[in-house]
Write a structure and sequence with these properties.
It comes from Halalkalibacter oceani. In the N-terminal section; belongs to the LXG family. By secondary structure, the chain is an alpha+beta fold. The chain folds into two domains: 1-229, Substrate Binding Domain Of Dnak, Chain:A, Domain 2 (Up-down Bundle); 237-406, no CATH class. The protein is 61% helix and 10% strand. The protein has helices at 6-38, 46-88, 98-129, 142-195, 207-210, 213-227, 236-248, 252-263, 275-285, 289-297, 314-325, 396-406; strands at residues 3-5, 95-97, 305-307, 333-336, 348-352, 358-365, 369-376, 386-391. It has a six-stranded mixed β-sheet. Strand 6 (358-365) and strand 7 (369-376) form a beta hairpin.
Length: 408
C-alpha cells in the first residue's frame, strides 16, 4: 500500500538538504586544508615527507571529490522529488492513501452510481404513470454517471501516478546507494591495506593504491563526474590511453577487468561498456582461457592481414586485442616503432611478449585510418603468422595524441 504524506515528505527533504549543505561546506574546507598540506614542498621535506604528502594526495583527495560529487547528486535527486511532488499533490498538507482510493473511494462511487440509477429509474417510472394526464420529459442521469466515470479514471490515474513517482525516485536513490557503498568499500579497504603491510604511509608510492579494486572504482566515479564536460581533444583521450595501457600490463589488467566485469564500466574512463566488452572483461579475469579460445577460432579466417570491423573508440579496439592475444606475460616489454617513415618511429607504440612472438601496436595510415595492429608469430612466421588490424574512429591527430601519451 502506498501513502503520500506531502508535509512530512517535504519536511524530511528540507532537513536532508540542510545537512547536505553543511557536509559539503565541511568537506570543501577539508579539501582545501589537504591541498595546502600537499603543496608544502619546501617545508615538509625528505622521503618520508614526500610519501606522506603523496598519500594524502592520492588516497584522500579523490575520495573527498567523489563524496562531494555524491552529495551534489543527492541534492539534485531531492530537488527533483520535491518538484514532482508539487505536481502530484500541490496542497501542503495533502495526504494520498492507496487503500482509501482503491477501497473507500471506488466503493463510494459504486454506491453513488447505484443510488443515482435507482432514483432516476424510480422517478421516470412515476413520470411514465402520469404521462396520459401530463407529459413530462424523462429524467436523465447521463451527466451524473459521466461524472462518476471520470472520478473512477481520476482515482486510477492518481494511484498510477503515485506508483510511477515511487518507482522513479526509488530507482534514482538506489543508484545513489550504490555510490555510497562504493565509497564505504574504499574507506574500509584502505585501513586493511595498512594492517596487512600492503600500504605504508612513510614509504607510500601512488602505485600502492592505483591498482586496488576499490581505488579503481573510485576513479570510475570521478571519471563519470567530469565526462560530460570534456571534448574529444580533452583529457578523456588521455584516460582512454591510460585505460588501454593498464589492460596490457600483467596482473593490473586482470584487476581492471574484474572491476569492468562487475560494474559494466571502464574503470579508468568511466564509459559504459557494450555487452560484448563486459563479457571480454570477464574472460580476462579467468586467465585468458576464453581469449585463447577466440584466438584459436580466428585462425581459420585465411592468410594475410585480417581487418576487423571498425569500432568507435581506441578503448573498444584494445579490448578486442586483449581477447585475441590474451596475457602477454609478466615480462612483456614496450614495443617501439621500426618504420622510419612513420610518426611512431623510435617511440613506444605498443607492447610485446618477452620472446617477441606476439605484439600489438598503435598505427595510422590514410587507408585504414587509426587502428591497432596485432602480429602473432607463436605458430611460426610466414603463412603461419597471424596479422590482424582493428580500426577505430579517429584521424592522424588522434593517433599523435595517443602516441604522445604512450611515451610520457
Amino acid at each position: 500500500m502506498k501513502v503520500v504524506d506531502t508535509y512530512t515528505l517535504r519536511q524530511a527533504i528540507s532537513d536532508i538538504q540542510e545537512t547536505i549543505d553543511k557536509q559539503t561546506d565541511q568537506f570543501t574546507k577539508l579539501e582545501l586544508t589537504i591541498q595546502s598540506f600537499v603543496s608544502l614542498n619546501s617545508s615538509f621535506l625528505g622521503r618520508a615527507g614526500e610519501s606522506i604528502r603523496s598519500f594524502y594526495q592520492v588516497a584522500h583527495l579523490p575520495f573527498i571529490q567523489s563524496f562531494k560529487d555524491f552529495l551534489q547528486k543527492y541534492q539534485l535527486a531531492l530537488q527533483q522529488i520535491d518538484q514532482e511532488l508539487q505536481s502530484l499533490e500541490p496542497y501542503l498538507y495533502g495526504y494520498i492513501r492507496e487503500d482509501f482510493l482503491a477501497g473507500d473511494v471506488k466503493q463510494g462511487l459504486l454506491n453513488l452510481e447505484r443510488t443515482v440509477t435507482s432514483l432516476t429509474d424510480t422517478a421516470n417510472a412515476v413520470l411514465t404513470s402520469v404521462q396520459d394526464i401530463l407529459y413530462l420529459p424523462p429524467l436523465s442521469d447521463a451527466h451524473v454517471l459521466q461524472g462518476i466515470h471520470e472520478a473512477r479514471i481520476e482515482t486510477d490515474t492518481t494511484i498510477e501516478q503515485v506508483y510511477r513517482f515511487d518507482h522513479k525516485h526509488t530507482e534514482a536513490l538506489n543508484l545513489l546507494q550504490t555510490d555510497i557503498q562504493t565509497l564505504t568499500t574504499y574507506i574500509n579497504d584502505t585501513p586493511k591495506c595498512s594492517e596487512t603491510g600492503q600500504l605504508r604511509v612513510s614509504s607510500f608510492t601512488p602505485g600502492q593504491l592505483t591498482y586496488r579494486t576499490s581505488h579503481l572504482w573510485l576513479q570510475t566515479q570521478i571519471s563519470e563526474s567530469v565526462s560530460d564536460q570534456e571534448t574529444p581533444s580533452s583529457p578523456s583521450t588521455w584516460r582512454e590511453a591510460g585505460s588501454a595501457i593498464l589492460d596490457f600490463l600483467p596482473f593490473f589488467g586482470n584487476i581492471k577487468a574484474g572491476v569492468e566485469a562487475l560494474t559494466g564500466k571502464d574503470a579508468i574512463t568511466g564509459r559504459h561498456l557494450e555487452g560484448w566488452e563486459r563479457v571480454l572483461a570477464g574472460a580476462a579475469i579467468i586467465g585468458g582461457s576464453l581469449a585463447k579460445g577466440v584466438s584459436r577460432g580466428i585462425k581459420g579466417i585465411g592468410k594475410g592481414e585480417q581487418v576487423l570491423d571498425k569500432v568507435k573508440t581506441y578503448e573498444q579496439a584494445r579490448n578486442k586485442v586483449l581477447v585475441l592475444v590474451g596475457d602477454l606475460g609478466p615480462n612483456s616489454q614496450p614495443y617501439t616503432g621500426k618504420l622510419r617513415s612513420s610518426t611512431g618511429y623510435g617511440q613506444v607504440v605498443g607492447r610485446q611478449s618477452a620472446d617477441g612472438k606476439v605484439r600489438w601496436r598503435l598505427d595510422y595510415d590514410p587507408n585504414k585510418g587509426t587502428h591497432i595492429n596485432i602480429e602473432d608469430f607463436r605458430n611460426g612466421k610466414g603463412a603461419n603468422a597471424r596479422k590482424i588490424a582493428i580500426p577505430f574512429e579517429g584521424n592522424e591527430s588522434t593517433f599523435k595524441s595517443l602516441l604522445k601519451y604512450l611515451n610520457r
